[in-house]
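Predict the holo structure. Ligand: iron/sulfur cluster.
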Amino acid sequence: MTRAKAIEILDKMKKLFPDAPVTELTNWETDFQLLVAIILSAQMTDKGVNKVTKALFAKYPTPTAMTSADHREIYDLIPSINFAPTKAKYLLGTAKTIVEKYRGQVPQTVAELMILPGVGEKTAKVFLSSFYGYNVGIGSDTHVLRVAKRLGLTQETTPSKVSADLEKIYPKNRWHEVNQYFVLYGRYICTAKAPVPNDKCVFEFCSYCHPGYDKHD
Ligand code: SF4
């Protein structure tokens, strides 16, 4: 696919969600709180995360406040989250590392963020993209993977290789938009379960839904 075609795809997605917030995670006001919400959102819907973060941030609004907790106390506030016991330990470890290593400030580079427990490359890129609008990379979650593959932007299947393909074809100054709009398009239009194509899809050229096409999502 040409870069021009890839940009056309992104522009069309953007038009479909003109007032979309940078993330559908809610309740956060600070960089630390958004990072916590993104850590909790691994293998979990944003809606599910939003149900627990209000109480979590009320009790532990800052890294310093969270370091006063025991991981079991954090767990008690997030029991409905997938992998809650592990994520409670991640949150405590992340808060401690921010306080002890980064003097209470959430770092602003992928490499520094990846030192924090529970923060991988995708989480770091999505956090910097969502909070600062930094174009440091494209984080491939399940929606980005599915949409990029179905639209023919990649033949790869692993998140890192799909991200690499998308980062090659999209200009760097659009990466934060890829993070935002591919997720929305996958969440609401090119969904995993809904039959495709559907009347909201704006990509008539997409061959994924053509009869006889070898679906390999
Ligand atoms: S044609 Fe189907 S697979 Fe392709 S983008 Fe639209 S909904 Fe997704």
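The chain has two domains: 3-20+137-202, 31-132. The pocket of iron/sulfur cluster is lined by residues 150-151, 190, 196-198, 201, 203, 206, 208-209 (CB under 6 Å).
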